[in-house]
Amino acid sequence: MGKYVYVVISRTPTSTGKIVRKFLKEKYNHASISLDKNLIQMYSFCRFSISNPLVGGIVRESAFTLTIGLEKDVPINVYRIPVTVRKYELISKFIYDIYNDAEIYYYNFLQAIGIISNKKHAVYKTYICSEFVMEALRQGGIKLTSLEPYQITPTEICDIMEKFICYSGDLNDYPFKQKIKTKEDELFFCKTGFFYEGVHTLKHFWKVIYRDRNSKKNSSRI
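-> structure tokens emitted (222 positions)
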């Protein structure tokens, strides 16, 4: 008996989301992957908390975090992809291994800038949302395009997965939406001080830049 994984493409009401859509001239700016139709086990690479859009990594998302607590609804497309039990297990393992890794995975702000400037490149143990989703599928043996995961935007995922569409509309109208806040939701909405976030942001930027430099050094030695 087969299973399904779900890819969720959304137009989030964040300032950064609006900037990305403006520069890319695309309808959507965010991608997530869920292991169930209720979107309870939904993961992506985005901000860790509502306080700081500049620091992020892998996050267990929900309907609450996608709206960042605003009343404004979020347009989404949900794609249901049939997979074998083995492929489902491989995708799950890839996600959980990153989520539980002792060496933190970071949001790749360099790649986010690269998407806008059309200078895309991957960095060790960092992802942007669309790259993470496509890599998760690839780890499960599902390759739907010849493009590398880091080359794909959320709106392009819509074109790639068009035949798997199972819902298109507002998030609040999604029939299987989870309505109970989780522990991860509560942590996401905890606000911290300006000084703490400033230090956290500098540390995050340095970690990504450091990994990028090391990646380039290692590739030049090959």
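The helical segments are 15-24, 63-66, 85-99, 109-117, 129-139, 154-160, 183-188, 194-221.
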